[in-house]
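Researcher: Batch entry, complex prediction.
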Amino acid sequence: MNTENRGLSERKKQILKAIVDAHIEGGGPVGSKYILQNQQLSCSSATIRNEMAELEEMGYLEQPHASAGRVPSELGYRFYVDSLIERYAMTTNEIAQINNLLKAKMGELDQILLAASNLASNLTNYTGIAIKPRVQSVSITKFETIYLEPDHYILVAVTSTGAVKSRHIHGDYPVTQATVTRLATALNDHLTGLSADQITLPIIMKTEAQMGIDAQTVGTVIKVIYELLSELDAGEMRVSGIDRLLQYPEYSDVSQLQELLGTLEKKEDILNLVSRTETNDINVVIGSESEVKVMNNSALVFKPIVKDGKTVGAIGILGPRRMDYAKVLATLEGLSGNIADLIHGNNQWNGGLPDGGNQSNGNA
Amino acid sequence: MNTENRGLSERKKQILKAIVDAHIEGGGPVGSKYILQNQQLSCSSATIRNEMAELEEMGYLEQPHASAGRVPSELGYRFYVDSLIERYAMTTNEIAQINNLLKAKMGELDQILLAASNLASNLTNYTGIAIKPRVQSVSITKFETIYLEPDHYILVAVTSTGAVKSRHIHGDYPVTQATVTRLATALNDHLTGLSADQITLPIIMKTEAQMGIDAQTVGTVIKVIYELLSELDAGEMRVSGIDRLLQYPEYSDVSQLQELLGTLEKKEDILNLVSRTETNDINVVIGSESEVKVMNNSALVFKPIVKDGKTVGAIGILGPRRMDYAKVLATLEGLSGNIADLIHGNNQWNGGLPDGGNQSNGNA
DNA sequence: GATTAGCACTCAAAGCAAATGAGTGCTAAA
DNA sequence: TTTAGCACTCATTTGCTTTGAGTGCTAATC
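Model: Structure tokens for the complex:
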């Protein structure tokens, strides 16, 4: 991901930075004259042209066509993001916004992430993404049953990630309050700590045998649990502020936009990308650096949210490749800090575990 | 919504229908000659022109500009949908698809709705919408608590609509297993059947007094319950297949598209529209018939899903005004039938109440 | 009175050519 | 190494013409 690009002279760096900045702001190719005017450089446009030609040769710039200005290449952006970017300081106003909106939403992790990605989208004017990554293996820490009617009870499961899931169960055979209570105990004894792929036939049979409850009921419940676990593994992703994309001319090409929306809908690709990421730092994925198709003139910036050493979610920003990285990075950094505070819980009535409970609504 | 439009001659109806059909298929204005060719009418193009002129005068047709063909007006579409539309029979293939995909998803209502709107989007090639409408007043039927650690327990609530919601609670004061159990009993005694606006200060105080649990803990829990209830009232909406919109030329105007995506994001308008609808039939909202802005050249077709006399959700299709209503209506009809079957539960292990449990992720 | 053929008219859309101008590369001088 | 100068390139804009689908109207016909 990093090339040996230290070999750039100060002037080259300054020119490259100027071009990227200008391109981020304006969107179009940047010419030598423009740089001369908006930059204090003690040289002429011809010199700048020479430098630009060299930068192009080195792969940092591209020329859409012979008589156009230069546009940063993917490599150019990468260098910019890694080395040239200027720290953007959030305004107190923005910080206040984050605090207010996030504190108000302080409920389950789901909602915090959603609110945060929303906020990120608002603050940066790009598209926000809230992600709950796939996890290798969730297990269930605690079972509980709620008896409602003779043929109807609810199974509640608390997962190892702190999420609470539930399922209504309508049995064919009437069950009693007592049976249902016994069921919970039995499940707690035998099935806690197992992930979906650990629930094998032997275990099921052993459980059935030792439970002293009719096999039908047990079978039904185990099936439900299995489904629950599979669902928990799946990961989820929510997008907010798609409409913002449209204001950038790079997306006025309908076919391009269509493909991008397609990948956003499918969710698969982005979910994979984020789930597979190992670092907890902010990630900047520019264009074809990722295996995600169609991101060619787009970039995705995302920041994992970590709780107890585990990645429990991520918030991200999707926008044109020429996005205002300084601002985006600062925003995500700020938000993730606040989220960390929230989920490490210093608030009165809620704030401990991530994931108060509900994370259905997967990607269908 | 209905004008006295019975005064149309058979031939006028035929011509109007032909124009609408042609426009749905092609998208452009329809001329007299085209109709003559694709329709068996024993008259000439001049006669058709005359009829068209009259239809325009009556408000059923519009002319984009003087030398263009005719385009159906909103009124024209309304008449078409109400009177002229031909029943579309779903293919066995499509029916099979519905059955398979829906049966596979048979879990909570949330997921069924989502899967259904997704499927609707696939089958019709327009954008699908899954809606859980606002409800006036949900109450909680049953409380349960799950003890985890000395300062940490989970509150589980079963609502009157059958949804199960939960919240982690981290108390400032240690609680015991026994306290937590007692808490559940007390809540079940005092707070079941109340909606958010019925939880008033007197009731809270009375509950606190009779509970015999420290006021802090009770106060915290009641606050959580209140928030839970408010959240349940809120309604939710999910969109799938936005990218499909782009294939219709009416949305290649970026600014239009942007506004439409905006309303889809806000959700407010559509949620209101659906929540306020009283009939359980399929609704067709064409363009500016609704108060929803920006739907000018779009139409929304939706079908409420009813369970025990209550509207528990809706699935809908959003597309260009010139959408294939016959197909859309048939699809929604078919899907809603299947959903009704599912939630009235004739399946072995699950199927009774709607809403197994999880419907967080509201509109932030 | 309804229908039709015929014709003049309209107007968006497509095609074409010239003008514009931002920006470059190269060369030769400083 | 830098720079001024100049010829060259090429996307974009502009104005113009052509095309053709489609209409409205009128006068003849059924």
